Amino acid sequence: MTRRILAAALATAALAAPAAQAGHHDDFVKEPTAVGSGGAAGTVDALATKAAIDTLERGGTAVDATVAAAGVLGVTEPFSAGIGGGGFMVIRTPQGRVTTIDGREKAPAAMRPDSFFENGAPLAFADARWSGLSAGVPGTVAQWELALERFGRFSLSKALRPGIEVARRGFTVDQTFFDQTTPNVDFFDDIPSTAAIYLDPDGTPRDVGSTLRNPDLARTYEYIARHGARAFYRGPLARAIAAAASDPPVADDANHTWRPGLMTERDLREYDAVWREPTRVGYKGLEVWGMGPPSSGGSTVGEALNILEGLPLSARNRTRSLHYFLEASRYAFADRGAYLADPEYFDVPLRCLLSDRFAAERRALITETAATSPVAAGACPTRGHVSTASEGPSTTHLTVADDRGFVVSYTFTVESTGGNGIVVPGWGLLLNNELTDFDFSSLTAPNRADGGKRPRSSMAPTIITQRGKPALAVGSPGGSMIITTVLQVLVERLELGKSLPQAIAAPRASQRNTATTIPEPGFAPEEPGLEARNHVFGTPQAEIGAVTGIEFLGHGRFLAAAEPIRRGGGSAAVVKKR
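Structure (tokenized):
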């Protein structure tokens, strides 16, 4: 029955969705929804989506197109993602196998649990972030090359060409970019290499409508294109990255203290991106694939879906269904806090967390009224310590599929909006602040800081298959709200009668085992019955997440969808409209 409902909903979505212009034509139009064949892509940026579609039209795979689009996003979305950061990629192959690449940043070898402590106490978040100390060893370039070597038809050099062109020619600053720059001005102007790119000479953000060029980043891309990913991790570029982190290039008149970091050239030289097995749960005849540890995305989304599978969800009783969604999130987040960390450093009980037995135990705790958080974690073989680490709302997600059967769901980031604020002088790349994703105020938590460790993440790139064939792929930025965003989109799409574009556009709420649930303004905390069920809503957040997704309509047709409004609106396109 679920399969028949899903097929009918897919057909309805295809009829309802407007088509978008696509391809490498001059009339490429930014649209949030597209239906057609030949391949599809969705990103937050029209230039990145165009790069993906151009790559598909030129014979590239979805992996080639993903790297091409990601290279452009490193220029146009530098405060969210780029080669100074890392991410997670979930790939479905034409043979039906799903695999993942972990390109998460790593802590320098010299990092210790108390590295973020001064005078016996942990640093405040801002002091930890705006420093060289927060910069993890970037994994993005190694991840791109690894993906292309296995599943691409393009070389890294060829895949980087769109990014080189955009960096050299520039892009138009929009209101979203201006708004992202504004709160960071007081820190950006401490770092001359950062101010030179992202601030006007008078120290204000680049004006809306102006053209922003990054010739240093264009040269860096060209350097990597000529010499391969190895050039990022060895030689002059690696030397410059390590120097910028270990001795931040601060102006003489800086009004903040920028603490030195621990990254060395050896840390860069020893970095490797890692193939990992995906998480997998069955959900009403579907297979849901996600990212395993050190990401908590796949396990937490998977656990919540396992809990929800045994509860009565329906569009006919939306309030009760939303109540169950919030409660499943609450209990899954309790387990995330206790058990999720880098599996090389902590024995993550993944099999237990994703088991039907464990889901039944957690489901039995859900009543018709909201629980009071924090609720306790469930009992799995390894007992941890609840983490309080926070993640920034930045990051970006892109989804790409081709007509060969490749599907890619890819989330990558520099952590907080603007990373750690340090552009590597002469190279144009912004460093991450990923090491603040550790529970750096704890000396004992599973996700504490340690040398060589990858901090826990909430990134949740997701691919859903049905009888081995692709059905849906989605993902989102948003820090720890990524998990609830992806989960809500799946619930809206699979259970509450919405098409994929409608599920993406729907107002959101996020419950992460906290005293209050954070809604968007449109979620309407006064939704009939939710407050009567004891749900307590906190101050609304203007936007939660920025989803892109692709739905597979059968007969070689795709529905690509992105945000219609959030983050300035996203961009979805197909190779051939029909």
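The longest strand covers residues 33-43. Residues 1-25 have pLDDT under 50 and may be disordered.
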